[in-house]
Design a protein that fits this description.
This protein is α/β, with parallel strands linked by helices. It is built from 2 helices and 8 strands; from the N terminus they run E-H-E-E-E-E-H-E-E-E. The radius of gyration is 16 Å and the shape is globular. This is VOC family protein.
């Protein structure tokens, strides 16, 4: 058995760095740990934390291909965030111009969840605890 401790971070490559930085900090509420411009790669790297825990590396690279989402492709499907009150968080997202899908019920847990997207159509999910 591998002696893994926990998930360290998730790396996301975005198309429009400033738009995605604004989404993850101002809409989603992530805190900036460090922001670095890597001139040799013409790339930004933004380290983001939520409630003090480092979670996301946001990268920009020139001329990135689009992510295939529909039909769903192999690989990472979505990121999911736990919430206490799904309607409240949906309203907060909607107030900031983020569209959300319909609330669904997980047939195995009877918990409610909903999907939405980041600026690059990366699927994100809210899952009510």
């Amino acid at each position: 058995m591998l002696k893994l401790k926990r998930l360290h971070h998730i790396a996301i490559i975005c198309d429009d760095y400033q738009r995605s930085k604004k989404f993850y900090t101002e809409v989603m509420g992530f805190e900036v740990i460090q922001e670095v411009y890597r001139e040799a790669r013409d790339s930004w790297k933004l380290d983001l934390a939520f409630q003090g825990e480092y979670l996301i590396e946001l990268f920009s690279f020139p001329n990135t291909p689009e992510r295939p989402s529909y039909p769903e492709a192999r690989g990472l499907r979505h990121l999911c965030f736990a919430v206490e009150n799904i309607e409240e968080v949906i309203q907060q997202l909607n107030d900031k111009g983020v569209e959300t899908g319909e609330i669904m019920i997980d047939p195995h847990t009877n918990k409610r969840f909903v999907f939405f997207e980041d600026p690059d159509q990366l699927p994100l999910e809210l899952y009510e605890l």
